[in-house]
Amino acid sequence: QVQLVEYGGGSVQAAGSLRLSCVGSGYVFNTACMAWFRQAPGKERDGVAVIDSYGTSNYAVGVKGRFSISRDNAKNTLYLQMNSLKPEDTAMYYCALYPYRGGSTCLSMRAPAFVHWGQGTQVTVSS
Questions:
Q1: Per-residue pLDDT tens over the stretch 13-25
Q2: How confident is the model at residue 51 (pLDDT cuts 50, 70, 90)?
Q3: DSSP assignment of 70-115, as one string?
């Protein structure tokens, strides 16, 4: 059974930083495309950042230059370094796994294709 568990959410002031982690189990982690999504109250779940099994990454326009996604396959862990946080980054952040190495579906962060999800971790940014 695939499990994804997120850590690292919290409350921070604008311009601050947070680092999210997602620890996976029950899958050959290094063969999967991994992504972070977020969902604010009353809004749809949107892709934030994605990294395929080859190390290629992609970001939502609003976070480029501020967020950085990385992975440690030896530890089955996905990371999201978030810098220069803004109040509009406030949301529940989810880790997700797409069970293929990469490709356009992965890098375009099409949420329905990501079949395994964590429970989410809340990030709140105050002005």
A1: 999 999 999 999 9
A2: very high
A3: EEEGGGTEEEEEE-S--GGG-EEEEEEEESSS-SHHHHTT-GGG--
